């Protein structure tokens, strides 16, 4: 489409040149004494030569501006290509950190939220006592997720909030795992029968409250870190 417009514009210029020059060269001039006779087309050009000159100037300006736009567009395209090349290493690093870690983190957040709701309930201490081995496995999994070495690939692109959120999430994951280990040792004297529920609940009340707090901390700061990863994805990867 653009090429056709250029061809039409060139044709108009050529026709204008021939339409002006041929009558001037070959047309019969009017009689000077009383301004009559002569070639009408040639006379028209002579009478309106200022207008013709103005039109020619406008056409020349149009083509100059159009050419300037073409040059500018080419320059902008080259600039974008250079920007893409300069951002490629950063995008590769961020891609390796975000995927698939963001999916792992979001799956972990769902589990953490579910455990927090159960632990924070009225029978939270008894629930923890009955599911302590499962909680230990989950805590180990959460710790593995927040310490995954893949998260460090793009660490140079983490802002202060992300660095802080990841540090707090790691501390919380460590605290949950340590608290569960301590509870396992405290639970060993009990047989686990329902008749011991009151004793276990009393003995676990305070440490389970601490686990609840750590779960909430992990949920809060891991969510913030996940938001940061999603922002990196939008800023660096969505435009690819």
Structure commentary:
With 240 residues, this protein is mostly helical. It has helices at 2-26, 40-47, 49-98, 101-119, 124-130, 132-146, 160-187, 197-237. The longest helix is centred in the first third of the chain and has 50 residues, at 49-98. 18% of the residues are buried. The mean pLDDT is 83.
From the alpha carbons, calculate the radius of gyration and give it in angstroms. 40 Å
Measured distance between first and last alpha carbons = 27 Å
Helix/strand/pairing category: mainly alpha
Helix content: over 70%
Pattern of helices and strands: HHHHHHHH
- Sheet having the most strands: none
- Approximate strand percentage: under 5%
| Principal-axis shape | rod-shaped
Per DSSP, the total helix count is 8
List segments where confidence is low: pLDDT < 50 over at least 5 consecutive residues.
Answer: none
Q: Round the mean pLDDT to the nearest integer and report it.
A: 83
How many strand units?
A: 0
